[in-house]
Give the backbone structure.
Amino acid sequence: MLTFSNKTDHVTKTLELTLEGAIDDDMALPALDLTGIAHFTIDFDLVAAINSMGVKKWMLFLNSSNLDKVHVIFKNCHPAIIEQINLSKSFLPNHGKVESFYADYICESCDHDQEVHFRSVSFDTDNIPDHPCPKCQANMEFDGDEDYYFMFLEFAQ
Ligand SMILES: [Zn+2]
């Protein structure tokens, strides 16, 4: 079940869509009125899961929205969303940007794992940062295939 809220700011010409739940077979989003909107921001922070039917429905939702003159900005993308962006460029429409995202990190000392949040603009794939482990203070490291996971930054940063 996916719920959403959206708010429009006519001064900044921004429409922000906040999603919560799962992007799956039951997903139903209305086509949004993007008249006069320059920036369409989608916040994925509370999206817990996505499956293949959800991806198809997501594409239908985007196709039903008139995005020709709109900058699409994805925020707070968890790894499941980043995987979809890496798999299919049409998951993030033309000229879309990922403003911020999460990456899986693991502590080699105590095995604690968690997602760490980053802003794309300040992220350097040549120098992937460590993160202090909240449990034992050792360094946590990115847990995954760097070349694959951060691919989206090449076209969506
Ligand atoms: Zn630790």
User: Anything to note?
Assistant: The domain at 2-103+145-156 is CATH 3.30.750 (Transcription Regulator spoIIAA).
